[in-house]
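Q: A reviewer asked whether we had any structural model of the full assembly, not just the individual parts. We don't, so I'm hoping you can provide one. Inputs are below.
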Amino acid sequence: MSARRALAVAAVVVLAAAAVPWSDGPLRRLAGGEGDGRDPRFDVRLDPTVLRAEGELLPSGLRYYLDAAGTSPLVQGNAKAAGQLYLARQLPVQDPRLAEARFGYRNGRIVPLLGG
Amino acid sequence: MNLVLGVLALNAAFLAVGYALVGPARLSASWAGVAFLVGAGSIGTLVFFATIVGLRASLTVAALAAAVLVIGGLVFWRRVPAEAEAGGGRTLDPLTAAAFGVVGAVCVLGVVGGFRSTPWLDDVWGIWLPKGLALWHHGLDARLFAPNGEYVTFGVPDYPLWWSVVTSLDVQTMGDLDVRVVCAQLALLTVAFVGAVARLLWDCVRPPVLAGSLLLLVLSPELWRQVQGGVADLPLAIYLALALLAGSRWLQTREGFLLALAVLALVVALQIKTEAPAEVASLVLVGALFARRFLWSALALAAAVPWLAWRSAHDVPSRAELDFTRVERVPDALRAVAEHLFDPTEWLVLVPLAIVLALIARQPKVLLVPGALLAVVLVAYWIDRDEINYVLATSAYRVIDPVVLSAAVLIPLLAESFFQQRQALREDRALIGEP
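A: Here is a predicted structure for the entire assembly that you could use as a starting point for your response.
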């Protein structure tokens, strides 16, 4: 067998092994398995749909406050990260009185709060 | 633009700029890995520097940086006669060719997996990418990047921002926020690194050794797990290992391009993570043991100054405290790090093999390279202020990446050295008539 053919055969065998739909071997996992979506896999239940939409609608530079008080540190960390990810055009503040928009973590979703 | 087209468009620009910088003599597909790492590293670095002087990390700024680099490359190579490249044709036996085929196919799958994976490391979508998006929308705004009590600032504010800049450019090119860009970008950098290793060693390492070494690297489960995590430690390791490889080849050839490549890779590494200056300094010092002229590459450390100056001007604290009294942290750190380095389910046998080869090739001094990088990691754990078990559990598996990739690029060099010694020994015996 020529070198060129050996190279091609080896490559095709590896690619074919990964393409077998019913296998869950390392090659298939290497190719991303079933595939993920465009949003992060948060460590906690967190639906960022509203936040993503608000991030595009709200004006750039607007000050916002994200309230996750009373939740676990993990939820607070994930909520903060989600805010900084989806509301990147806006500016997060520590004091709700300085905020022009307010969001809260409620039952696994981040939602706008009245009075923001 | 969708995910694939967006990321590929940006990376095609990285590649084009890289080719302009590596020169017309290297304008071939085999140099794509080197050119890509040079282009991505240079553009990311310039855009990062641009944010330090007040610009935003936008596509416009990236395009300007690219234009400056391309013009600089074209002018340089017009004035400096291009060195003729040695012909790359080497005969492959079918088994070696098949091994290269497997390497290529695994890389293709790794890229596919990168595009289909959401980074599992929360730092990526919680810190690195949000920082990049902020650099795009607000620039290096102290309200977000320096603790101030009024605005919510980012975690680990002392970390440099190359990785944030590059992934932010991916999002901008794509035109939509999709965290998979991070893994896609890291997969492309990783594959480029494999290609760069192959290219830089093609003329000096026999193909079966090179193919086996690359196979060992790309079959390491931890390599692709980290790609799908989007961790910044991997690009740091890639650029440090590239510097090591280019520096090693420069020792053999004294070709100026290779020294320049080593210095550039060090410069880029400095912009990726906060431990990089210590790692770069350790590499330079070890390099100087092999050739004193390597000390000139310490000039690369000047590239850390802009970020350190910005941090200093804005009172950005460092994570590390210079407290050397907590020496009891070191044995725990050493144990955790060694477990990851030698666990065959993570990096196969890359590190132990490099050690064995250095000993049987009678070049133990070479082990100072991964040893120095390991020492930096241990010192970082020693002086870190976080609880030791927590920090080891969350970072030991990835801060060792520079140690592992440096071992990975040393393996083919050491194996080749070993085979050449054996060959010379056989020829000597034949000369004196021994059987």
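A: Points you may want to mention in the reply: The radius of gyration of chain B is 21 Å. The mean pLDDT of chain B is 95.
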